[in-house]
Structure formats: C-alpha cells, structure tokens
Inverse folding.
C-alpha cells in the first residue's frame, strides 16, 4: 500500500482528496493536516466521514509528514504551497500540488499575476498534470502541478481544435461559470448564501489569474503565442464548471465532422466524453465524477466553432485529476479509485 499525506486537508479540495482516496484500493491515507482543527477527528469536522475513518487532523510540519507518507497532496492556497513544496521535494517523495504555484513556466508571468515566488528553482521540475495531454511527462516526474479548475475545462475543450489547426488562435473567447465551492471553504463575503443564492454575476472580468495559465497551455497546443478573452461567472450551485468557448474557423467543417474530430482526438480516454452531435453537457451530469463532458457545434452564420465543456471543479478540476496524476506517478491504472458515476439528480 502506498502511504498518502494530505497537507491542507481541512479545505474543500483536501477533504475531496480524502473522500476519493478512502475508496482507492492501492493506497492508505496516513496523515491529514490542519492547523485550526489539529487534534480533532475529521469526522467531527466533516460528518460525511463518520464511521469510515479514524483519522484525526494533525498540525504537522512537512518533515513529520514525509516521515509518514510516500506521496503528498498539497491542498494549500497559492503562495502557501510554494513555501513548503521544496521541503517535500527535497525529501525525495512524490508530490501533487493542487495550488497554482508551479503551473506557470515563466516566473515573470507568475509574479505579475500572483506576486513574488518563494521557490522558483522548483518550477522547472513540475509537470503540468493534464493526463490526457501530458501522460508520458507525468509518468517520468515526481512533482505534478495539478491544473486549475477553469483551465482544465478550457484546455480539454480546445485541444482538438488547436491541434488540428481548425481555429484562428487569436479569436478565442471563453465564457466560464463556476459553482461556489471553487472559492474554497475560507469564509468570505462573496461566498455567503445571500450573496450567491438567486444571483449570477461575472467577476474578475479581464483580470482573472487563470488567464495566463489558459494562455500558456493553449499556446503550447497551437504552437504559437495566444491571448484569449476569459470571463468567469459565479453560479448559485455547490459544484460544477461549464465553459462555453467561441473561436473563428480556419476552414469549412460541418458539425458532424467536428464531432468526429473530437471523438478521434479523445479515443480511448476514460475521462473525456464527447456528447452526441446536437447535444451539449450539463454540470448536473458530471457532479461528483471525474468526467469532462464536451459538446461541439459549428455556427455556419458566423463561421465560428462553439465548444461547451463541463466538469466538477472539485473532482476533474482538482482532487480527481490529482488522483489520476498520482495513479500515473505510482504505476496504478489511471482510473483506480475514480470509477464513480456522477450523482444525479
Ligand atoms: N476549490 C476548488 O474548486 C479548487 C481549488 N484549487 C486550489 O486548491 C488549493 C486548495 O483549495 P481549497 O481546498 O478550495 O481551499 P480551502 O480554503 O478550502 O482550504 C485551504 C487549506 O489549506 C490550509 N492552509 C491554509 N493556509 C495554510 C498555511 N499557511 N499552512 C498550512 N496549511 C494552510 C487550510 O487549513 P487550516 O487553515 O485548517 O490549517 C485548509 O486545509 C488552492 O490553491 C486552490 O486554489 C484548485 C482547483 C479547484
Ligand atoms: C468560484 C471561484 O472563486 N473560483 C476560484 C477558482 C479557484 C481555483 O481553482 O483556482 P486555483 O486552482 O488556481 O487555485 C477563483 O475564481 O479564484
């Protein structure tokens, strides 16, 4: 059994990692950390775990966790992860970082969006962990930068179109909507019930920190520098991201051909499902699962491609993808522990 430590386990992504790892037959979770709940059984904080685990939160140093675990999930806020990641890396253990700290290859770009980086020397060691695109690189590393939730939905949605040179890279417009768990468990006014319920708004318009991450990865797929327009919105639901993406076509293609191109690109991929032509995804049909559902269409009037992609932000957008990466790092089948069907209704 591979021993797992979750550093920052009291947050939404940390507890989601535990929820999934407790049903993974190749691993045992041996350490979960939290400063504020140190000493408390996790079932006291998250009753979903009652009767399922006797694990208690520890306020442990990275050194203490590496003494117990073989693989460490970092589920900390960005700018915090970068302070402890080097200690885990130097211990020789495998690390999957769920924060944004090691996703951007260019330190100057990182620092212009996030502020000073505390451990830039580690950035070249990290592999950007979208298994459907970089499976071989993930298998060779022991440090994965797990992608952001919005970027996962957009990159998987755009990869077939960019790789097949179907669209003008300068024309991409992304309109994304996220459930409130995307903001984490830390109390904040914007996540209060009265702020979110019966409400729907755009936020960080033209300035969201996932913009450079999406641009970095789409540029890599296109083979040229890309700038995109990206607008996130906050939905009054717990989980789920729906991204609608528009781009100008470079050649004539029918909706049926487009659907075939997407199907071919993701042939054999366990966690990407291409919708039947004329049908489009719904966050309700991926909730609690590791699937990314993608629907495509050609709008002949505007000569644009329209792609709609849906994920659960806490699963394919965070903990599920982190476990998919861990499975590759450890030589397990990629879908081990991730076989769950979406929870509907
Ligand atoms: N929510 C989502 O949908 C997604 C989140 N992410 C990213 O994953 C990471 C975790 O997100 P999320 O779970 O939502 O965040 P939360 O705010 O819900 O949880 C953060 C966790 O980090 C711990 N923590 C905070 N500061 C420190 C510190 N200085 N030292 C040690 N532990 C600390 C907290 O524990 P305590 O204070 O008890 O010690 C808590 O367990 C973030 O980087 C986030 O951006 C990525 C994809 C999707
Ligand atoms: C709804 C909501 O607030 N979402 C978060 C995205 C959180 C996230 O996943 O960001 P990282 O993975 O890059 O840390 C936001 O807009 O900042």
């Amino acid at each position: 059994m591979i021993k797992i430590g979750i550093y920052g386990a009291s947050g939404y992504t940390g507890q989601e990692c535990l929820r999934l790892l407790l049903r993974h037959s190749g691993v045992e979770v041996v350490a979960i950390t939290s400063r504020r709940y140190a000493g408390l059984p996790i079932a006291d904080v998250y009753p979903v775990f009652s009767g399922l685990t006797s694990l208690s939160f520890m306020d442990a140093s990275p050194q203490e966790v590496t003494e117990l675990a073989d693989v460490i999930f970092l589920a900390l806020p960005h700018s915090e992860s970068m302070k402890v990641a080097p200690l885990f890396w130097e211990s020789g253990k495998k690390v999957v970082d769920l924060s944004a700290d090691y996703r951007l290859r260019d330190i100057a770009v990182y620092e212009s969006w996030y502020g000073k980086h505390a451990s830039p020397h580690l950035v070249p060691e990290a592999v950007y962990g979208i298994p459907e695109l970089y499976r071989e690189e993930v298998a060779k590393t022991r440090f994965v930068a797990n992608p952001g939730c919005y970027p996962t939905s957009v990159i998987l949605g755009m990869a077939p179109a960019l790789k097949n040179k179907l669209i003008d890279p300068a024309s991409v417009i992304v309109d994304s909507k996220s459930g409130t768990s995307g903001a984490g468990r830390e109390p904040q006014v914007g996540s209060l019930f009265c702020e979110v319920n019966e409400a729907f708004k755009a936020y960080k318009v033209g300035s969201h920190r996932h913009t450079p991450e999406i641009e970095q990865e789409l540029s890599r797929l296109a083979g040229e520098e890309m700038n995109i327009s990206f607008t996130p919105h906050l939905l009054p639901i717990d989980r789920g991201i729906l991204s609608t993406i528009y781009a100008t076509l470079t050649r004539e293609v029918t909706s049926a051909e487009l659907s075939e191109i997407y199907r071919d690109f993701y042939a054999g991929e366990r966690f990407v499902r291409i919708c039947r032509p004329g049908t489009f995804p719904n966050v309700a049909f991926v909730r609690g699962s590791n699937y990314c559902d993608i629907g495509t269409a050609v709008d002949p009037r505007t000569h644009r491609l329209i792609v709609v992609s849906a994920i659960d932000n806490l699963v394919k957008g965070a903990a599920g993808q982190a476990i998919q990466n861990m499975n590759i790092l450890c030589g397990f089948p990629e879908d081990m522990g991730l076989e769950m069907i979406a929870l509907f209704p």
Q: What stands out?
A: DSSP finds eleven helices and 14 strands in the chain. The first helix runs from residue 12 to 21. The first strand starts at residue 2 and ends at 7.
